[in-house]
Design a protein that fits this description.
mainly beta; 0% helix; 58 residues; Rubrerythrin, domain 2; 3-stranded antiparallel beta sheet; single chain
Length: 58
C-alpha cells in the first residue's frame, strides 16, 4: 500500500502554506487531510482568506 503524494497550497493573501502531510492540527485539521477534503467554508488561520484563495504550489 503506497502513501498518496501530498501537496502544498499557498494563501494568495498572506503566503501561509497548507501542507497536506502536516495538516493544521491546532485548527482541527489532522495530518494527511487532503486540501479538497477541507470544508469549503474553511478560512486561512492567519488572514481569514477563503479556501478558494489558496493555490497549488507543487
Amino acid at each position: 500500500m503506497s502513501n498518496p503524494e501530498y501537496k502544498k497550497y499557498c494563501c494568495v493573501t498572506c503566503d501561509l502554506i497548507y501542507d497536506e502531510e502536516i495538516g493544521f492540527p491546532e485548527e482541527g485539521i489532522p495530518a494527511g487531510t487532503l486540501f479538497e477534503d477541507i470544508p469549503d467554508d474553511w478560512t486561512c488561520p492567519e488572514c481569514s482568506a477563503s479556501k478558494s484563495d489558496f493555490f497549488l504550489t507543487n
